[in-house]
Amino acid sequence: MPKSVSARKPEAEQQIDLTPMLDVVFIMLIFFIVTASFIKEPGIDVERPTAETRNQVKNQNILIAINASDKIWIDKKEVDKRFVKSIIERMHAENPKGAVVIQADKKSTAEIFALITDAAKEAGVTDIALAAEDS
């Protein structure tokens, strides 16, 4: 019996080329990494005061937390009040459009809040906000 012209190739030779799919997946991975916005957390949870009115702040890259015992936290690290200005300057240089958002506990003092506000102004930041809860 003659062999058929449409004879199939052996199973070992039949493969799907995955290279184009891997290229697309790699390009998508790069796209998501580049376009992701990384939010820096202050490192502690604070009980924020309530406010009657509020405005949403965009580009909030510099988050500073003040806990009830007036300790300052930036980027999950406790910071001495003498170094707040230099840290704000460094973080503001990384993102000049970013605002300073201060998350102060209800029981914290106004002195620490004023110290951070002054340090931010001296560092060249003009957009400074206090985080608050809705009332």
Description:
- Helix content is 30%, strand content 17%.
- It is of the alpha/beta class and 135 residues long.
- It has a domain at 50-134: Nucleotidyltransferase, domain 5, CATH 3.30.420.
- The strands form two sheets. It has a five-stranded mixed sheet with strand order 4-3-2-5-6, with helices on one face.
- Helix 2 packs across helix 3 (110-122).
- The protein is elongated and about 85 Å long.
- It is a single-pass membrane protein; Single-pass type II membrane protein.
- The chain crosses the membrane at residues 21-39.
- Keywords: Cell membrane, Membrane, Protein transport, Transmembrane, Transmembrane helix, Transport.
Quick recap:
By secondary structure, the protein is of the alpha/beta class.
Spatial ordering of strands, largest sheet? 4-3-2-5-6
At CATH's second level, what is the architecture of the domain at 50-134? 2-Layer Sandwich
Dominant shape: elongated
Q: What share of residues are in beta strands?
A: 15-25%
Category from helices, strands and their pairing = alpha/beta
Ends apart, CA distance between termini: 89 Å
What kind of sheet is the major sheet? Answer: 5 strands, mixed
Bin the helical content: 25-40%
Number of strands: 7
Rg computed from alpha carbons, rounded to a whole number of angstroms:
27 Å
In CATH, what is the class of the domain at 50-134? Answer: Alpha Beta
Average pLDDT, rounded to a whole number, is 79
How is the CATH topology of the domain at 50-134 named?
A: Nucleotidyltransferase, domain 5
- The tally of helices reads 3
Which spans have pLDDT < 50 for at least 5 consecutive residues?
none
Order of helices and strands: HEEEEHEHEE
Family: Belongs to the ExbD/TolR family.
Main location: membrane
InterPro entries: ExbD (IPR003400)
Transmembrane segments: 21-39
